[in-house]
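> example.struct
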């Protein structure tokens, strides 16, 4: 009896008349099976090709409207308007493609590809406009001419199979160029621009199998638009990608607006130089020692009173230009407010900066005399010390003391602060 129970326990379930539970297929297999069912339903039952094109039209047209509204709200960035125009052209081309799918005619497919490739060329121009901040229309015209030059003639001659192949190849090339331009500009907003470049690149890749399938079919003349898995998958990918492209483009514009507002907050509107806040922020990032000179235009109030504020503003701008000419890369020329300016040199010495400050002072006096007929001068105080957030206030105090000494000694001169103190050296540089 014991032996029989042990044998029954050790025997497989099928030998004991017990039904085994069927094994579940692996997760990846179930995923592929479900995906295949969904894809087949989309292709054969739920949505035909024209319905997919209608979905592209609605999404692309909606994105075009949103981008245009974004440009109307803030017209700082023209690339939004260019992108909206490109998306609109693509949307209209989809309508022509949908009509062509139902009633294949040469003029319909020619118009559809003309609008599509012109729209994609315009979107390529959007990327160039964003990167170079210049008019994109010359590049758009060249790209459109090349794309249409290889695509339209086969369709006009009735060789639509060749035309489809060339059109898919041209679309892929334009999308790859768009991806490249956004990739090259990625330093401006790395995450957003990398995602935008990747999206255009992936959409461009989707046109490659479509061209390959047309080539494998080997027909120079086809009864209508290609109907294969690559065509359906590419259209579905575009439907899924268009909202993401619109959102990323709007996010890019928002980042630029935020950066522009910050730049305005850190820039003196009259001279374009960094203001006091920008100066403090940049010095806070430094370490080590350095030197700075604090300038003040002499008797500036008298210029405003006798010659008017327009002349006073011109004098301010002239001094700013002179100061910029004497500032090397990595040095900070800033306007503190009114007629006060600063030139800060990380790692510089007081003696070396004093010589450069004297040259700037002399150049300013000569240019004002030549251009405005004014005898206008500037005084400056030079100090050296710790160039950091903690030591900057002491450095400014020392330079201010030296500037005060220059004013007391008769103006129109540069005075050095005594090393290690806030007392000014009475030896001006003449």
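> example.seq
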């Amino acid at each position: 009896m014991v032996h029989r129970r042990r044998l029954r326990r050790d025997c497989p379930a099928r030998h004991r008349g017990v039904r085994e539970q069927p094994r579940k297929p692996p997760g990846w297999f179930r995923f592929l099976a479900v995906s295949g069912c969904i894809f087949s339903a989309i292709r054969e039952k739920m949505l035909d090709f024209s319905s997919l094109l209608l979905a592209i039209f609605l999404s692309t047209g909606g994105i075009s409207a949103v981008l245009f509204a974004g440009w109307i709200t803030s017209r700082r960035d023209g690339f939004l308007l260019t992108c909206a125009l490109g998306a609109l052209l693509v949307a209209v081309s989809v309508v022509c493609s949908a009509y062509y799918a139902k009633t294949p005619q040469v003029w319909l497919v020619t118009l559809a590809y003309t609008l599509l490739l012109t729209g994609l060329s315009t979107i390529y121009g959007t990327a160039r406009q964003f990167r170079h901040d210049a008019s994109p229309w010359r590049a758009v015209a060249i790209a459109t001419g090349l794309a249409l030059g290889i695509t339209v003639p086969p369709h006009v001659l009735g060789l639509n199979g060749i035309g489809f192949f060339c059109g898919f190849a041209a679309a892929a090339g334009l999308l790859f160029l768009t991806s490249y331009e956004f990739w090259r500009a990625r330093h401006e907003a790395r995450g957003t621009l990398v995602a935008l470049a990747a999206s255009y690149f992936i959409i461009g890749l989707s046109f490659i199998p479509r061209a390959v399938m047309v080539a494998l079919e080997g027909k120079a003349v086809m009864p209508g638009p290609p109907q294969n898995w690559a065509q359906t998958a590419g259209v579905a990918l575009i439907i899924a990608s268009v909202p993401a492209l619109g959102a990323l483009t709007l996010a890019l514009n928002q980042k630029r607006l935020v950066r522009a507002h910050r730049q305005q907050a850190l820039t003196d509107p009259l001279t374009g130089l960094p203001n006091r806040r920008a100066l403090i922020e940049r010095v806070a990032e430094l370490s080590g020692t350095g030197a700075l000179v604090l300038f003040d235009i002499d008797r500036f109030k008298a210029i405003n009173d006798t010659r008017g504020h327009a002349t006073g503003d011109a004098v301010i701008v002239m001094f700013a230009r002179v100061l910029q000419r004497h500032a090397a890369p990595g040095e900070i020329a800033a306007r503190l407010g009114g007629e006060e300016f600063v030139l800060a040199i990380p790692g510089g010495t007081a003696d070396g900066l004093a010589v450069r400050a004297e040259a700037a002072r002399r150049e300013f006096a000569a240019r004002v005399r030549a251009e405005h007929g004014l005898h206008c001068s500037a005084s400056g105080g030079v100090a050296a010390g710790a160039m950091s957030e903690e030591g900057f206030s002491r450095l400014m105090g020392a330079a201010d003391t030296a500037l005060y000494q220059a004013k007391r000694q008769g103006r129109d001169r540069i005075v050095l602060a005594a090393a290690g103190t806030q007392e000014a050296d009475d030896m001006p540089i003449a």
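> remarks
The domain at 276-416 is CATH 3.30.70.270 (Alpha-Beta Plaits).
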